[in-house]
Amino acid sequence: GAGVSQSPRYKVAKRGQDVALRCDPISGHVSLFWYQQALGQGPEFLTYFQNEAQLDKSGLPSDRFFAERPEGSVSTLKIQRTQQEDSAVYLCASSPVVDTQYFGPGTRLTVL
Amino acid sequence: RKEVEQDPGPFNVPEGATVAFNCTYSNSASQSFFWYRQDCRKEPKLLMSVYSSGNEDGRFTAQLNRASQYISLLIRDSKLSDSATYLCVVNKNSGYSTLTFGKGTMLLVSP
Lengths: 112, 111
Fold this sequence. Notes:
The complex is a heterodimer of chains A (about 110) and B (about 110). By secondary structure, chain A is mainly beta.
């Protein structure tokens, strides 16, 4: 079956631009997570949704980062006024139950 | 102190070797533990869960020591295809999984 998909796979933005990253979770998965992975680091938790409810956004690094999942399926991570330090791979994961997370291929964001 | 600490490596081993990775975590309330594998420019994939009783999956053995807050992964009879970064992962929440990842340990298996 289809796994988690993310688009775009690569995004180059000029500093100050807004970007939107999309995640399509596995159909029927209730839980959805966003992670940020900087070069040479492990993924770091950004935010968690259960259906359409954003239950944890403690990992979002600033108020420039915003995530939504309005219908409990597709999610969008938006970064406003991008900065160079935002350059990273943004990973989305979905889960049917606690603990088992399936990751998408990620979006590699480069801010110039 | 980082929540999950690993030796970044790289570990360079010949095919057929046995290699062990270690990991320590700081939050004693952590609930569950995993090893993920990440190939270069790919997403992390679950390798195995880690239990206090220890668990084995083919050539891979994982151990958890809650008292020492220490997790290990042993790979026997290394294959070229085992070359990857191995991420130690801890879940500290009981209600849902906000996974905390270590930086990863890079393994390079050579012919």
